[in-house]
Amino acid sequence: MNEFFGSPHALLVLVLAGFVPNEIWRMAGLWFGAGVDEGSEVLVWVRAVATAILAGVIAQILMQPPGALAGVPDWLRYGAVAAGFAVFMLTRRSIFAGVVSGEIILLAGKWWLG
């Protein structure tokens, strides 16, 4: 069991440096955002910025793939994204359906190519 998790000190550092700081901001966001109207201009702007950042990260991973994804041909990566988007639109904008279908196509294509 210790081999799987590694050193207890490393796990403690991971929790203190990675998990706790993120949770503090999440809880602060819940607390401050509880009374804000979802249609307010501030939240519309925040949602737009978050969407733009996510789109930028996806574009960077698609065009300059890291790690094992670099071994997947460009046409397969772009095709999986296009198929995922098509399923997203066909399923009344279901993010889950779009992501799962894109992943299935990417994995099946990589498996088929060998």
3D architecture notes:
This protein is mainly α and 114 residues long. It folds into 3 domains: 1-35; 37-65; 67-114, no CATH class. It contains 5 helices and no strands. It has helices at residues 2-5, 8-33, 41-63, 74-90, 95-113. α4 (74-90) runs antiparallel to α5. The chain is flat. The model has no long low-confidence stretch (mean pLDDT 89).
Fill in the keyword field for this structure:
single chain, 114 residues, mainly alpha, flat
- Helical content class: over 70%
Rg (CA only): 19 Å
Low-confidence stretches: none
The percent range for strand residues is under 5%
Number of domains: 3
Mean pLDDT: 89
Number of helices: 5
Element pattern in H and E: HHHHH
Instruction: Summarize the biggest pleated sheet.
Output: none
**Extended strand count:** 0
Q: What is the 3D shape?
A: flat
Q: Kindly, what is the distance between the CA atoms of the first and last residues, rounded to a whole number of angstroms?
A: 33 Å
Helix/strand-derived category reads: mainly alpha
Offer a quick outline of the entry:
The protein is mostly helical and 114 residues long. The chain has helices at 2-5, 8-33, 41-63, 74-90, 95-113. The longest helix is centred in the N-terminal third of the chain and has 26 residues, at 8-33.
What's the structural blueprint in terms of helices and strands?
Blueprint: H1 2-5, H2 8-33, H3 41-63, H4 74-90, H5 95-113
